[in-house]
Amino acid sequence: MNQTQVKVSFAAATIALGTIVPVAFAAQSPTAAVNSTATAESSGAANSTSTVKSSAAATPDVAVTPSVVKNDMSAAVAWLDKNGISSMPDWTAVAQYAATGQFAKIPLPKNYVSGLKTSTDYARAILGLLADGLDPHSFQGVNLVAKLAATQLTSGANEGKFTDNMNGTGTDLINNQAWAIIALQDAGGASYNKAAAAMWLINHQNKDGGFGYSATYSTSDADDTAAAIVALRLLGFTKDSAPVSAALQYLKTQQAADGGLVNGSTTSNSDSTGVTIDALASVGVQATDWSTKQGGNPVSALLSFYNAKNGGFNYDNTGSEWSGVSTLSTRDSIFGLAAYRSGQSVYQRLQHRELNQLDPYWAHIYAAGGAWSNHKWVNWPALRSMAIAGSYLSSLTPQWQQVVAHHGEWVTQNGHKTWVQWGPQLANEALLDSFGLDTMHLNLINVR
């Protein structure tokens, strides 16, 4: 490529390399959600007035800062690696992937697949394999994706339902339907009736907008409602569609004074709060915007459950015998913090996506092999991270979008605040935080 007189610019003005800012039209990126032909409306799910429940815990005085979120999440991953691999290697892998964007590479037993009996077992296994960087379409001689898809009923009163058990029995579990959809959408390559799957789930939405665990025990709860929101989002529904909007309204009614979410009580807990933050991110809702009159929000509440003594997350802050650190509470807390940090649900991020397209502005610089900055030629490799961040600007985390908008950020170094201008270093950090190791898939550039 010739070193043509291409200058790195923004708003038609030549500026220094350290302040290169992507142009506004660079904010287009491929969508991860799969379009669905489902046009079903909520089955009687009415919008409910947002009410804040009382909470036994005081509003947490926890600062929501990128460093606090990052540090607490890293400690939680380390705790879960020590305590969760033996009992739940698959969920530990998903949590590790959520936090780092890197494949977990957690070894699985040779008889792992033979121990899977229910469709939720298969869904969990598919997600764990994806987080491990393994192929659920062919693992230990089994196509888990095809087998799970084959449990969907194609006729009758429960058309669209994935049976509760892999032997084709059971039509009670609502929770099972949501997780089957999530797993199949993440894995891809599954042949099933998406519209019918969505319709069955929506038909089991309660009038208060929430979802319950099963048709038998159908009382709405935050955890199962969060899973249903993610499932519907992966099928193409948005926060403005009737079922999702009603589900979000229900979750608001389950918010305690400290900003966290409750489940069958008036006290918030880390499980419900973590999975709700993940669900909110899946439909583009910033969890910190859900603040209460007392000043709490789901993220500050979640951080209040962090146990600094061991690095895990308490279930709640009541001090009861079941309120301490557990593998599940730590897992769900990681999901919530990772979603807040990345701006996406971990189940959206598990849908593999290659960041391999440049917008016209950066494509011009790529074609030239680089650009001039401060009368010096800068070769393309040095601009690569900025080009990808610019081309996928709207997919960066909200925090990094703000850094780009301000052309840099203030950081504390040796006790002093220092201004760091937007450039290759910050762009690399933005890509890692927003996409994890997906940013390694940048070798093939498709100019659009």
UniProtKB/TrEMBL annotation:
<keyword id="KW-0732">Signal</keyword>
<protein>
    <recommendedName>
        <fullName>Squalene cyclase C-terminal domain-containing protein</fullName>
    </recommendedName>
</protein>
<dbReference type="InterPro" id="IPR008930">
    <property type="entry name" value="Terpenoid_cyclase/PrenylTrfase"/>
</dbReference>
<feature type="signal peptide">
    <location>
        <begin position="1"/>
        <end position="26"/>
    </location>
</feature>
